[in-house]
Amino acid sequence: QVQLVESGGGSVQAGGSLKLSCAGSGYDFSRCGMGWYRQAPGKERELVSSISSGGTTRYGDPVKGRFTISQDNAKNTLYLQMNSLKTEDTAVYYCAADCPRRVWGVMRVDKYWGQGTQVTVSS
Q: What digits encode the pLDDT tens for the residues 3-48?
């Protein structure tokens, strides 16, 4: 059974830092595209950052230069280092994986989600 478990959320003052972790099990996540999403109250879930199976990273404009995504394939763990946090970064942060699976010769991609971890940034 594929499972993603986030940790590392919490409360911090503006300008501070947090590091989120996402521990995966039940799959070799080095084969997957991984990402961090967030959802603030009353807003839609948005992509914060992603890393492909080849190591290519992307960041949403609001977090460029402040957040860093990384992956430890030996530990099946995804990270998000968040620096210079702002009040607008307050949200529930979710880890996600897009994992390939071959079904009857056709490649499919299954998406898995973690349960989310709350990040609260106060002024």
A: 999 999 999 999 999 999 999 999 989 999 999 999 999 999 999 9
Long-range contacts of 25-32, Cβ-Cβ distance < 8 Å, separation of 24 or more: 25/1, 25/76, 26/1, 26/2, 27/2, 27/97, 27/99, 27/112, 28/76, 29/71, 29/73, 29/76, 29/78, 29/97, 29/99, 30/71, 30/73, 30/76, 31/99, 31/100, 32/97, 32/98, 32/99, 32/100
Q: 73 is written with which tokens?
A: 């394939």
- Residue 20 tokens, joined: 């989120």
Q: How many CB atoms lie within 10 A of CB 40?
A: 14
